[in-house]
Amino acid sequence: MDRSTPAGELRCEGIAKVYEDGKRALSSVSFAIPTRGIFALIGRNGAGKTTLTRILSTLLEPSSGRATIDGLDIMKDEPRLRERMAVVPQEGRAVPWMSPVQMITSYLLWRGMGYREARTKARKAVGLVGLGDHADKMNRRLSGGMKRKTMVAMVIASGADLIFLDEPSTGLDPISRKELWDLLVELGRERFLFITTHYLEEAEAIADRIGILNDGNLLASGTMDELRSMMRYDHVLRAPAGTDLPPVPGETMVGQDGHMQVMTDREGSMLLSRHLIERDVEFSVNQVTLDDIFYRLVGEELDSGAEGGEKD
Ligand SMILES: Nc1ncnc2c1ncn2[C@@H]1O[C@H](COP(=O)(O)OP(=O)(O)OP(=O)(O)O)[C@@H](O)[C@H]1O
Ligand SMILES: [Mg+2]
Questions:
Q1: Which domain holds residue 250?
Q2: Contact 308, 215 (CB under 8 A)
Q3: At 299, is the pLDDT very low, low, confident or very high (cuts 50, 70, 90)?
Q4: Which comes out higher in pLDDT, residue 46 or 148?
Q5: What ligand is nearest to the CA atom of residue 21?
Q6: Which of 17, 50, 90, 213 is the best mutation target for the ligand 1 pocket, counting ligand atoms within 8 Å of the beta carbon and taking the most?
Q7: Per-residue pLDDT for 256 more than 80?
Q8: Are 237 and 251 in contact (CB under 8 A)?
Q9: What is the mean pLDDT of the chain?
């Protein structure tokens, strides 16, 4: 077996984490993804997203397992990886008594850059995220969305090509979130972004690859197409409650909106579509979304008695 780790890949082999109090946050997480574009890790509160993010960004030691990024070992090659990394933790907030330019300049100085270069890069990055008019205002006078953009400006200015952002869009209004998405997508064109999020539509919209974590286990990881192909029934047909339908392979349930929801395969969805068109019943049919996949996979875990979510 080839044990070498090809460059251009993040590879995780059996990463587990048990905290000092005995809490097992990660069981044995294994996956491999290319280090380009955006990888989004999703999962419920307490699923282990922050723990995995901190381990891969070398801030926390795993209890067991191994991980490499572009062939560099997170334990043995930490200094070399750190030079290439920028990390914004879940609780990472703009320093209130500094302006965006001051804060980013300080960060770059701390990373070892000279003052002049740091100052120029900071100002440029602040402009790039659309905060040019607020570059010298104290962060405490900026809105939550502007503060988040300041944090993104910081990782842009760092020049790091391995970027870890734990819940970058939490608490943002829909427009600010969309603006942030555009920035992240732009950033993901040239660098590798590892993000966590609770917004499934965000992961679906901006991520090239998605990992679903539940109770310390990675249930699935891959592109949307790969995740869809894991589903036996990859089409969802929605029709008014109580609609009479012929039997097809798959499952019928009541959706959150009270509509009848049939998860079936392509043939099943075509058969149902013909049936409903003939009877002039309004319906919609789509490929499964990340929502459908998430609820299915995490729901199965809960049904099978595995515990999930935050617990003491
Ligand atoms: N320092 C710690 N000591 C003990 N247990 C911890 C510690 N940090 C996290 N945990 C526990 O490990 C589990 C995973 O936590 P983690 O913060 O990784 O989850 P998360 O997916 O990021 O959750 P959230 O979506 O709420 O941010 C949780 O049960 C949490 O209570
Ligand atoms: Mg977290």
A1: 232-287
A2: yes
A3: confident
A4: 46
A5: 1
A6: 50
A7: no
A8: no
A9: 91
Same domain, 164 and 15: yes
Task: Give the separation between CA 214 and CA 201, rounded to whole angstroms.
Answer: 18
What are the tens digits of pLDDT across the range 56-105? 999 999 999 999 999 999 999 999 999 999 999 888 788 999 999 999 99
Burial degree of 267 (CB within 10 A; 0-12, 13-18, 19+): exposed
How many separate domains does the chain show?
2
Which CATH number fits the domain that encloses residue 86? Answer: 3.40.50.300
CA of 46 from ligand 1 middle (Å) equals 5
In a domain, residue 294? The reply is: no
Among protein residues, the one with the nearest Cα to ligand 1's atom 4 is 19
Mean pLDDT for the stretch of residues 242-260 = 86
Give residues (CB < 6 A) around ligand 1: 19, 21, 23, 25, 43, 45-51, 90, 310
With CA atoms as reference, report the closest residue to 220 among 43, 23, 71: 43
Q: Write down the pTM of the prediction.
A: 0.89
Check whether residue 195 and residue 240 sit in a common domain.
no
Q: Does 198 share its domain with 240?
A: no
